[in-house]
Automatic annotation (TrEMBL):
The keyword Thylakoid does not apply. Keywords: 4Fe-4S, Heme, Iron, Iron-sulfur, Metal-binding, Oxidoreductase. This is Precorrin-3B synthase. Coiled coil: none annotated. GO terms for molecular function: 4 iron, 4 sulfur cluster binding; metal ion binding; oxidoreductase activity. It comes from the Bacteria. InterPro entries: NIR_SIR_4Fe-4S (IPR051329), NiRdtase/SiRdtase_haem-b_fer (IPR005117), Nit/Sulf_reduc_fer-like_dom_sf (IPR036136), NO2/SO3_Rdtase_4Fe4S_sf (IPR045854). Residues 14-77 form the Nitrite/Sulfite reductase ferredoxin-like domain. It comes from Sphingomonas palmae. PANTHER family: BLR3264 PROTEIN, FERREDOXIN--NITRITE REDUCTASE, CHLOROPLASTIC. The lineage of its organism: Bacteria, Pseudomonadati, Pseudomonadota, Alphaproteobacteria, Sphingomonadales.
Length: 367
């Protein structure tokens, strides 16, 4: 076992966190059958601490394993087809629009790319590819470096992250275009930048185009029905209960902290007030965090009208975009920023938990 202390654990490369080993499962096409979901719940309960997190790249994290538990978990996950037996194939995140249908463009392109995975050059740890080829793009806020999207003309397009526009890609040539742009990224020194959006080299002419992605407007259709997970977390018992809903065939994983249910209506949830509220796992489960995050986020949620991000440190794992109110842990206290990311300069520094609550209780439902 190679224990990683940096970013991006996989199933084969668990990360040592404050609550034990953390392993990440990234199922094919972001879909797990009800039976696979029950297996994951059983592994989490038996070999971990029962906590299962849905990440903002639509992967599942199991926490609190020891080495023996990790070995048992890996064997079971590989046998169930949830983890590839080849550790190299686990390393690159492929994010798909979660409402894909069998045989549609998202499904077709992702399947073709998976078959040619070995042709990709060695890419940085956090590099990812989004296949977002439905009638409108839904993954625009999700972390990815290369994006296959639906253009506003209706054509399929390829866009390098950080660039507003991209090029048209003929049907059937999408994977060739992805491989060529990944090759260019590496050859032009992108590995040092780490991410496409931070790589300032001018794109080659063949990758420069004027197509804009067709953005989704309004709330996504509730088909398949969605089930929100507060802070992206579900425990093993709750996941097992979800799989026992009559008719449930499978779960789709999304990057926005909801599960989509295939074949069954979503159970009622009384946790809607936590929509728009993001908080990472924080201390003590994450060694980088110096504050507990989710208890404060839960207390603040009814008091804040807009979006809220409570982050254990300035890495801001739970949310990469701005939130109306941001509280970032530093040396056991909170820094407050407004309309910002977790690493933005604060407007108030060094607040205690009680001071934060007092501030917002004095200004209920206001930022
Ligand atoms: S943002 Fe949260 S989860 Fe990420 S490193 Fe900091 S404390 Fe840990």
């Amino acid at each position: 076992m190679s224990v990683r202390r940096g970013w991006c654990p996989t199933a084969w490369r668990p990360m040592a966190a404050g609550d034990g080993l953390l392993l990440r499962v990234r199922p094919s096409m972001g879909r797990i059958t009800a039976e696979q979901a029950r297996l994951i719940a059983d592994i989490a309960a038996l070999h971990g601490n029962g906590a299962i997190d849905l990440t903002n790249r639509a992967a599942l994290q199991l926490r609190g394993l020891d080495e023996a538990g990790w070995r048992a978990a890996i064997d079971r996950l590989v046998a169930a087809g949830l983890v590839d037996a080849d550790p190299a194939r686990e390393t690159l995140p492929l994010l798909v629009a979660p409402d894909w249908r069998e045989g549609d463009d998202t499904h077709r392109i992702a399947t073709a790319l998976s078959a040619r995975w070995a042709e990709l050059p060695p890419l940085p740890d956090k590099f990812g590819i989004a296949i977002d080829a439905g009638q409108v793009c839904v993954l625009g806020d999700a972390s990815a470096d290369l994006r296959v999207e639906r253009a506003d003309t209706g054509a399929l397009m390829l866009r390098a992250d950080g660039r507003a526009t991209g090029i048209a890609v003929p049907v059937g040539e999408e994977v060739d275009a992805i491989l060529a742009l990944a090759d260019w990224f590496v050859a032009s020194g992108g590995t040092a930048a780490g991410r496409m959006a931070r790589h300032n080299a001018a794109l080659p002419d063949w990758a420069t185009g004027g197509l804009c992605p067709r953005r989704s407007t309004g709330a996504p259709a509730d088909d398949p029905p969605s089930y929100p997970l507060p802070f992206g977390r579900i425990d093993a018992d709750a996941l097992t209960a979800l799989t026992q809903r009559v008719g449930l065939a499978a779960l789709r994983l999304t990057p926005w902290r909801t599960l989509l249910l295939e074949g069954a209506p979503a159970p009622k949830s009384d946790l809607g007030y936590l929509r728009g509220i993001d908080a990472c796992v924080g201390a003590p489960a994450c060694p980088q965090g110096s504050v507990a995050t989710r208890p404060l986020a839960t207390e603040l949620a009814p008091l804040i009208a807009g979006t809220l991000h409570v982050s254990g440190c300035d890495k801001g794992c739970a949310r990469r975009t701005r939130a109306d109110v941001v509280l970032t842990g530093r040396d056991g206290r909170f820094d407050l920023a407004l309309n910002a990311r977790a690493d933005a300069p604060p407007v108030v520094c060094g607040l205690t938990y009680e001071q934060v609550l007092a501030h917002f209780k004095g200004f209920p439902r206001a930022a």
